[in-house]
Amino acid sequence: MSAAPYVPVTKDEVAFVGTGPVPTRPYYDPAYFELEREAIFKRVWLHVGRVDEVDQPGQYIVRPIEAARASVLIVRGADGELRAFHNVCAHRSAQLVPGDGGTARNFQCRYHGWTYGSDGRLRGVPDEGSFFDVDKAECGLAPIALETCAGFIFVNLDRTPRHSLREFLGVWADRIEALDIGASDVFSEYTYEVEANWKVTFDNFQEIYHGRIVHAKSIGAQTFAPENPFGYPTKYSFAEDGLHRSKTLWFNPNYQPGPIEALASRIVATSSPPVSDTMASSTEHFYLFPNVTFLAAQNRCFTQTVWPIDAHHTRSVIRVYWEGPDPSASVRFAREFRTAATLDVHCEDRDIIEASHQGLRSGAFESLHFQIHEVDCRHAYHAVDRHVEEYRSELAGGRPA
Ligand code: FES
């Protein structure tokens, strides 16, 4: 693996994000989490899936978004249109579709049998004549804003989103569309839950500082070298509006993989489509506000989406992406090896994420300290807190939430 000589990022380059201590309370306080529900998860664009999962008419996926107390039904209509709805029946608000996905022409409520088409329209009401003035045309599923970028589906639970997805992502939309991850159409997925606040979980993937201690055995040799003993990134980029961020990773140019890893790398490299210039030169982590990480690197594309369950519990969804189905058993092996290697690293993180949360919620300290290479954590904290403060101001001003 070739790599540019290591040039450290300086304090001056990141000081504009802030230099002082950051309060610990937002990382564990249930009252703060209640504000985050309203200020963030009910208002901003959230990545929930890939268009490939709902490619055919009638295909649907269901996504729980606990932080917004919502369940979202995303379905490809018979007309080919991709739509999102609240997964809630218009009769008496029972949750409509169980499970996490499938294919259906209609959705029938399990309670009294109201039936909806894949376009969300109410099609059938048992014993319709016993209702008073119910207009079926007005009783379709409640729509949710849906837009896509590079094949990634985003929804916004705000009834009237303040921004289009494109406005929300800004130049990050162009950057993601330039990556080969957008052409991926198959993936391996695993999820895990941790007893930790979502920001504690997300921050673990926003800094490399801990790698030397936590990941020394798994990716240490690949990441560290005498000229860069902590494996620090070489560049940080921040969106002008303060929402999104990215970092350019650095790898040990003299890393020698073991025989199995070398074999898997060789198989994936020779079986993959030609690598674009963008991908060949890019090994970046993109962090999209509020909760998704994209790793874009040659043959190593993955996403991690961090879903708050409550102030003290989080679900992580990891996806490792590939282009096209397995052409052979050896490619299947190589892809599984990559996925397992990614899982190994995340397993190493789990205990320390939970230990961090336990310490934070003890209230032993009122502030924490970020160094240069934890700047992404600091940037994320400010983005979250700015939303919370704006929401508090709205409440104080008497404007409806
Ligand atoms: Fe769905 Fe009654 S709540 S049919």
Number of E-state strands: 19
> Which residues form runs of ≥5 with pLDDT under 50?
274-282
Which overall shape is indicated by the principal axes computed on the Cα atoms?
globular
Strand content: 15-25%
Strand count, sense and closure of the main sheet?
7 strands, antiparallel
Figure out the total of helices. Answer: 11
Strand order of the largest sheet: 2-11-10-5-4-3-6
The ordered string of helix (H) and strand (E) elements is HEHEEEEEEEEEEHHEHHHEEHHEEEEHEH
The bound ligands are: FE2/S2 (inorganic) cluster
Query: What class do helices, strands and sheet pairing give?
Result: alpha+beta
* Mean pLDDT reading: 91
Radius of gyration over all CA atoms, rounded = 23 Å
Distance between the termini: 51 Å
Helix amount: 25-40%
Describe this structure as you would to a colleague.
The protein is α+β, with helices and mostly antiparallel strands and 401 residues long. 29% of the residues lie in helices and 25% in strands. It contains 11 helices and 19 strands. The strands form 4 sheets. A 7-stranded antiparallel β-sheet has the order 2-11-10-5-4-3-6. The longest helix is centred in the C-terminal third of the chain and has 33 residues, at 329-361. It is globular, with a radius of gyration of 23 Å. 36% of the residues are buried. Residues 274-282 have low confidence and may be disordered. Bound molecules: FE2/S2 (inorganic) cluster. FE2/S2 (inorganic) cluster binds next to loops. FE2/S2 (inorganic) cluster binds at residues 89, 91-92, 94, 109, 111-114.
